[in-house]
Amino acid sequence: MNTMKKPRKIRLVVVLGLLLCVSCYYDQEVEEVIPDIPIDEPISYQDDIQPLFVLEGRDCTTCHNGTIANPDLTEGNSYDAIIGSLVPGDAENSAFFQGLPGNDHPVEAGFSLTVEEIALIKGWIDRGAENN
Would you list the domain boundaries of the chain? Predict the structure, then answer.
């Protein structure tokens, strides 16, 4: 009778160990879902998108200022600088969108845009990326 309990304990320990390993693996790769901006919520480049490039503590123009890195995201230059890397109506296939800090920026930016900010940019591109 004592020999029957030992294999059960070993199986229990093995099963619990495997569950722990699997749960740790999935915890590391959690990606946040980018929400859709409601279609009735207007998105303006000048009022909603451009200000995202110069947020206090997360200022893209520190590097993207026309001298250090492209595109130039300074006010007055940013739209013309990014339009060539956009696929209006298709954010997922737009190089600019793919390279956002918090999405897949090519170098360590030192900060990330929030999921909500990325969603705003995505919504703007998906709606045609107008200079409005």
Answer: 1-30, 45-126
